[in-house]
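Long-time lurker, first post. I've been practising inverse folding by hand and with some scripts of my own, and I keep getting stuck on stretches where the structure tokens seem ambiguous. Below is the full token string for one chain I'm working on. Before anyone asks, I'm not after the true native sequence, just a reasonable design that respects the backbone. If someone could post their per-position residues I'd love to compare against what I wrote down in my notebook.
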């Protein structure tokens, strides 16, 4: 698509949507949001960029292939579930860091698990969207 309006708005909306997706990720453990919704919003941001500029430009701005996001997300999720075992606690027990971080708040294994869900949803969704878009071309 060669719409100047869409391309111009996409340049401004991409960073805003990515920041909003990170906000949803960190807000969502005890309130609405979380890794799933944050991952969908970030995938929507890249999808909007894909519609405006094409798949080659999206592949230029993405640091890695979508499949690697899935692998990273699964690594985070499994790591957050296994971490308490090394501390002598049961599998998937919530473990929290002492103190609070300035903007994020309490950091613990549920936050790491949500981050894994975020990356997994982002990778799977982008993989599906890229596959559909490549079949179109």
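-- Answer (accepted) --
I ran through it position by position. Result:
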């Amino acid at each position: 698509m060669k719409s100047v309006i869409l391309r111009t708005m996409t340049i401004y909306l991409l960073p805003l949507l990515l920041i909003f997706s990170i906000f949803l990720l960190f807000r969502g453990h005890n309130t609405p949001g979380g890794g799933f919704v944050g991952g969908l919003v970030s995938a929507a941001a890249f999808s909007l960029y894909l519609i405006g500029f094409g798949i080659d430009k999206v592949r230029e701005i993405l640091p890695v292939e979508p499949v690697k996001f899935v692998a990273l997300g699964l690594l985070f999720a499994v790591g957050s579930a296994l971490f308490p075992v090394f501390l002598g606690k049961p599998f998937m027990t919530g473990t929290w860091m002492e103190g609070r971080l300035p903007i994020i708040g309490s950091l613990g294994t549920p936050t790491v698990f949500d981050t894994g869900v975020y990356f997994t949803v982002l990778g799977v969704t982008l993989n599906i969207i890229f596959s559909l878009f490549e079949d179109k071309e």
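A couple of notes from the structure itself: The longest helix spans residues 109-136. The mean pLDDT is 88. Happy to go over any region you disagree with.
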